[in-house]
Amino acid sequence: MRLLKAARAGLSALSGSLPRLLSIARELGLEVVGFVYWVFAALFIFSPYGFIEAYRSLPDSFGRLLLSGGGALMWAWFGYTSFRRAKKIARER
Question: What is the DSSP string of 43-89?
């Protein structure tokens, strides 16, 4: 009888804390993904320096420079929205 009572108490405690733990894990996951997106944005920002040098010698690489800037903006936006969603989850707790 005591074992059954202990199992019920354990399940009750788990059902009370599991949603909070999952919320924390989801928030952490969104923050990690947002950081990775910002790293990608930084790669797209710093890679055009080679394109700028190439543009000085060959003006046809201007399209690649614009494409790299667009990619940097896209990844930066993804990172921003990921952190914004993580903050929303934190406020709901």
Answer: HHHHTHHHHHHHHHH-GGGHHHHHHHHHHHHHHHHHHHHHHHHHHHH
Return the domain boundaries, the chain. Answer: 2-92
pLDDT tens readout for residues 14-37: 777 888 889 999 999 999 999 999
Token pair, residue 78, equals: 């993804």
Token pair 């800037």 in the structure block, residue: 69
Q: Are 72 and 41 in contact (CB under 8 A)?
A: yes
User: pTM value?
Assistant: 0.72
DSSP label of 1:
-
